[in-house]
TrEMBL record:
Protein name (Swiss-Prot/TrEMBL): Nitrate reductase molybdenum cofactor assembly chaperone
BP terms from Gene Ontology: chaperone-mediated protein complex assembly; nitrate assimilation
Keyword Glycoprotein applies: no
Species, as recorded: Dechloromonas agitata
An MF annotation (GO) of this entry: unfolded protein binding
Annotated keywords: Nitrate assimilation
Length: 184
């Protein structure tokens, strides 16, 4: 489930340090670079070959761009456009007072797994949740992501409308929650 950790990183703010870590990981992965890295992170083949290739191409494209351009685009996409927010409860509650109890419940749920997060970040931040999911087994991750399915579909659709390349990553994440519904 280590590929969920990479998805977490790819959906997080592309800081200079994060980009340097990604470049190093790709360089160390082997002659296939990003493709070798992605395929190595999914040895269990939880993701389809098409999904792994899409993630590798996204990573290659990301690393081919200037950091300041990536950072500006990220802020414009996720921080300045509410419809693209990676804070999942925002899409359900907006800024209503009822969002607070949902965030507390989510924090408590994460704690039942022994998972704690940086208190500076809200627990519904998708990269944080993907990091959590990377520690779960395949079945548990499908159930957890299945619960977020409606919100992930909304975010992906909003990103697609704006032509954002991040949409494909959200669709891949959503697909791994949707699979549990197919098996039921």
């Amino acid at each position: 489930m280590r590929l969920f950790k990479l998805l977490s990183v790819l959906l997080d703010y592309p800081s200079d340090a994060l980009l340097a870590e990604l470049r190093q990981a790709v360089a160390e992965a082997g002659p296939g670079g990003a493709r070798d890295l992605v395929f190595d992170l999914d040895r269990q083949q939880v993701f389809s070959q098409e999904e792994r290739l899409a993630i590798a191409l996204f990573l290659e494209d990301l690393l081919a761009q200037e950091a300041t351009e990536l950072q500006a685009r990220y802020v414009q996409t996720f921080d300045l456009t509410a419809e693209h927010s990676l804070h999942l409860t925002h899409h359900i509650f907006g800024e209503e007072k009822t969002r607070g109890p949902a965030l507390i419940d989510l924090t408590e749920h994460l704690k039942t797994y022994g998972y704690s997060h940086d208190e500076k970040e809200l627990p519904d931040y998708l990269p944080l949740l993907l990091e959590f999911v990377s520690e779960l087994g395949e079945d548990e991750s499908k159930v957890f992501l299945g619960d977020a399915g409606k919100v992930l579909k909304v975010i992906a659709a909003n990103l697609e409308k704006s032509g954002s390349h991040y949409a494909q990553l959200i669709r891949i994440v959503d697909n791994h929650g949707s699979l549990v519904k197919l098996a039921a």
